[in-house]
Amino acid sequence: MRRLGLITAVLFGGLLAYATPDFPDWGDPRSPASTHVSPYYIQNSLADTAVPNIVTAVLADYRGYDTMFETTVIFAAGLACLFLLRNFGPRAVESRLYRHRPTGITLRIEQGGDLPENSAEFERIDSQWVPYDLIIRCAGRLVLPFIQLFALYVVAHGHHSPGGGFQGGVIFGAALIFYALSHDLRSTLGHLPEARSLIVAAVGVLIYVGTGVLCLLLGGAFLDYAALAGLLGVDPVMARSHGILMVEIGVALAVTTVMVSLYYYLATAGRLDEGL
Amino acid sequence: MIWQLEIIILVLVVVCAVGALAVRDLLGAAILFGAYSFLMCLLWAIMGAVDVAFTEASVGAGVSTVFFVAAVFRTSRRTRD
Amino acid sequence: MSVHYPALVVVMPVVAALIIAILAWVHPSRALPVAVAALAAAAGAAAMMLVRVLAHGPFAYHLGGWPPPVGIAYEIDHLNALVLAVMAAVALINLLAVWPQAEQRFAERTVFFYALYLLFCAGTFGILVTGDAFNLFVLLEITSISGYALIGLGRRDAALASLNYVFMGTIGASLYLLGIGYLYLVTGSLNMADMAAILPRIQDSRVVTAAFIICMTGLFMKMALFPLHGWLPNAYSQAAGPVCSLIAPLTTKTMIYVMVRIGLYVFSPQFTFGRLDLARAMVWLAVMAIVFGSLTALAQTNLRRMLCYVVVAEVGYMVGGFWLGTRTAMTGAILHIVNDAAMTLCVFLVVGTIGHQLKSDTFDTLRGAFRRMPWTMAVMVVAGLSLIGVPPTCGFFSKWYLLGGALAAGHWGLAGALVFSSLVNTLLFFRIFEIAYFEPVNTGNYGHAAPLRYAEAPPAMLAPMIAAAMGLIVLGLLTGEIVTRLIAPAIPAAIP
Amino acid sequence: MWDDFVRLAVAKANYWIYIVLMCIGLWGMIVKGNLVKKIIGMNILQTAIILFYVSIASKAGATLPIITHHGPGTDSIQAVGHINPLPHVLMLTAIVVAVATLGVALALAMRIHRDYGTLEEDELLAMMREK
To answer: S-S: B53 plus which of A68, A83, B44, C380, CB 3.0-4.6 Å?
Structure first.
């Protein structure tokens, strides 16, 4: 196997190296890649879509169809993890650990034993509980709102600066994952239960696809945002800009929730009880 | 665009890639992979691909690494090569 | 609305998958009707597009309203209209046939099975209609990811088989992406027609040669051409029955379609068959695939595993026919894409049903199967005859064209391999028929004859299966029409 | 001869590095026996391709693909002044695809670990043969 791997890698590298001398030089502005289609985007995207960030314009409008499927791929990954890992069977109830806050004594409640979950003096803890995570908790609480705000900014400001629905969505998702890491998984699940998370993901992709279908119903081609002009009461160029914003929001919703769901399934091996 | 910096990053990228594959501890490999992603993202930022770099910083260096750590945590850290 | 069919055929399954993913938490029982309706609508749209292509010739659809090199275009021509119509019908029939099995097999997961099923279909349909090389990659990944998940939840070793498929599939898709990158580097375009217009001018560049090799290698991995077939037998034999009869007909055949599309419509036929002297080597590789697949199939004792190797051999048929580069052989290869999809559906449906009803799919369990499941076995006979190549089933006609093409090109190796494989298939299927018809039923542990239970599948599963078997004969009878009206215009005039 | 070589090496430095990375990734996927290591190799392979695409996009002396001045006068936008945005768009999609594949691959690896208790390929194969 070792030899086979080496031979394959070397052969493959040889093929790539064989072609490299015929490449245009690095950064050559006269290379075909920079002169055939891409100048159109650079010169016309502002006039066509009123979006200064050309990458966003191309991503969500000229090649918006690719991006729709990109979002669908992410959604499919969420579904796939659920399909593969989720424990649907009767949940194997092991013993649960409760900590008595005033004294710090930990109780192990075996199956069948009863203790109210919401007791003021007891808190449920993970089997691998770290006692003094006060700093992480507080720092987390302090930083989280800013991360989330930044994520929203990235989504909304994707027209003018780097960013957009995908990046913003990942950052928002990462913020929620960070919350789960700095506190525990149960509190995150309390804010964003599994079912709600996946429904929101589906809704996010549906916003994208729905925008496309709406354009189609209004007489344009699929995802031709200019067709929304009448509905939004703006000229076709601005309609494209707004259309891009709509789909970016859909992408952000889908990506946020799928990232969190992926974390739920991977971190708990599908049991959805204790996080990392 | 300081070319010395770029060369250093290019070398570090390769070092991290080899390191991530060579280290005999999966948690270490996951962290090195995160470093690899982050260096890659720096490289792209230098080359002007800000959107790609942004995405890679949040996905590759952020969420992917967490997924790796989660998977290693739930399976095993041990590896024989 | 009719102008929007190319988009709708892909979008409808996606929308249905999303709705099902929401319904899963609210009304799980409504998922099946939604899935069936979406696939039926997609199949209807595919049929309408076929009719339109027959009447008015090829047409294009500009997504987002942007004309091709700038935006993404779907281009429907004779080739993909034909393949799409058959694939859509295959997906629909399969869903109708397997849902009772799936509900039993996946229990609470069934709803998500439907959603992934629809995403898989959407990806496949998209690959067939797209005219944009990068869009094809994205759709390919949709198909792959839902496929990995579906396969991963199968029998005992399914997860491992699926992870191997992930590795091979990702290398394949990455190579395809890299090849497209090379082409983009020298053409500056991602649209297939646009690339095809630019490529003849720069044919001598090493980059184009490398792009061709990389792209094709990636596709060979995805289509499981010998010796890159390693993932296929494990993945297909470990997958659950309902999944197997979806993925086996669609995956490899779609990839062969992509190979035809890239080889003929992105690179010119002169380049594909002339520039590299690769064609000759590829035909011999196909010959090896056929011989290897057939011989290995002969050695199997498990019905499903045997069919997996038959699939490996069938991939060799189409690859060999394509790379011969003559008109007759090409006709045979394209016709075989369609026919093989239908035949594979049929046999895997039968095997899935046998596995479901008799709880095992080794040869031993087949004893007395003709009396226990007469209708299922009748379908098996039709499918088997088609795989062997007996008229009037469709398998005969595509094999006839392939054989004719091989003989006309003077390629005795391929002709020999085709005949050899037919003989092996005869042996394989008549052995099955013999076991199922003549061999005595297993005696029980204590010497009592085990009671011969009637174990026929319920009508809901049987009817689509019989429809599929009829489809084999109908496709066979329609061969003349398909060849003259659809395949002949699809092959570029440059091919001799 | 030597000058040619140096020119070739410098003018296409990024292209050489991406080849090295692709080979490392491919080698890792084939040679490494641990499934998580293989998944890391797969990611390195995908990232290398992204590096290649980003390298295509670069233009000497050009600025970011974001148009900074607003209002009228958009006619003055010169294509040579901005980096090619198209490969960036494609690579955003590729990154997403990579993370989706990563998620599914890790999920499968966890299932395998749940079933067999190991992630080493040779041990897995030995177990499969035993059964």
So the answer is: B44
From A154, A105, A97, A104, select the one nearest A124 (Cα to Cα).
A97
- In this structure, are A58 and A178 located in the same domain? yes
- Other Cβ atoms within 10 Å of A141 Cβ, number: 12
- In D34-63, the residues whose Cβ lies within 8 Å of chain A are 55-62
List the single best residue of A26, A36, A259, A262 to mutate versus D (max D Cβ within 10 A): A26
Each residue of A54-104: pLDDT tens digit?
A: 888 888 888 989 999 999 999 999 999 999 988 877 665 566 777 777 777
Q: Given this model, what pLDDT does residue A28 score?
A: 78
**Contact criterion met (CB below 8 Å) for C18 and A202:** yes
Give DSSP secondary structure letters for A230-253: HHHTS-HHHHHHHHHHHHHHHHHH
Yes or no, beta carbons of C160 and D124 under 8 Å apart: yes
**Are A202 and A254 contained in the same domain?**
yes
pLDDT digits (tens, 9 = 90+) for C6-37: 889 999 999 999 999 999 888 888 889 999 99
Q: Test B26 with D21 for CB contact under 8 angstroms.
A: no
Is there a single domain that holds both residue A151 and residue A215? yes
CB contact under 8 A, B62 and A170: yes
Q: Do D66 and A53 touch (CB under 8 A)?
A: yes
Selecting from A167, A181, A276 the residue whose C-beta is nearest the C-beta of B54 gives A167
Nearest to D112 by CA among A81, C160, B69, B75: C160
Inter-residue contact C465 to C346 (CB < 8 Å): yes
Asked if A64 and A220 touch (Cβ cutoff 8 Å), the reply is no
Contact A13 D80 (CB under 8 A): no
Residue C400 pLDDT greater than 60, yes or no: yes
**Chain segment C429-443, per-residue pLDDT in tens:** 888 888 888 776 655
A 10 A CB-CB count for C1 gives 9
Q: What is the pLDDT of residues A209-241, one digit of tens each?
A: 999 999 888 888 888 888 888 888 888 888 888
Q: Which domain holds residue A245?
A: 49-88+133-268
pLDDT greater than 60 at residue C448: no
D13 contacts A26? CB cut-off 8 A? yes
Residue C157 touches partner D, C-beta closer than 8 Å: yes
How many domains would you assign to chain A? 2
Say whether both A144 and A76 belong to one domain: yes
Name the residue in chain D with its Cα closest to that of C137: D94
Residue A122 has pLDDT above 80, yes or no: no
- Please enumerate in sequence order all residues whose Cβ is within 8 A of that of C145, keeping only pairs 6 or more positions apart, or say none: A73, A76, A77, A80, D100, D101, D104
Of A38-47, C44-53, C84-93, C188-197, the one with minimum mean pLDDT is A38-47
| Nearest-Cα residue of chain C relative to residue A64 | C64
Interface test with C, best of D104, D115, D118, D128 (most C CBs within 10 A): D104
pLDDT by residue (tens digit) across A257-275?
999 999 999 988 878 777 6
CATH number of D46's domain: 1.10.287.3510
pTM beyond cutoff 0.90: yes
Q: Provide the edge-to-edge strand list for the sheet that holds A106-109.
A: A106-109, A96-100, A122-125
Mean pLDDT (chain C) is 89
Distance from CA of D99 to the nearest CA of B (A): 7
pLDDT score at C170: 94
**Calpha distance A16→A12 (Å, rounded):** 6
CB-CB under 8 Å, A67 with D93: yes
From chain C, pick out residues whose CB is under 8 angstroms from the CB of D86: 190
Residue C444's pLDDT band (cuts 50, 70, 90):
very low
Cβ–Cβ gap A85/D107 under 8 Å:
yes
Q: Would you give the end-to-end CA distance of chain B in angstroms?
A: 38
What's the number of domains chain D is made of? 1
Q: Judge if ipTM > 0.90.
A: yes
Is the pLDDT confidence value at C447 over 50?
no
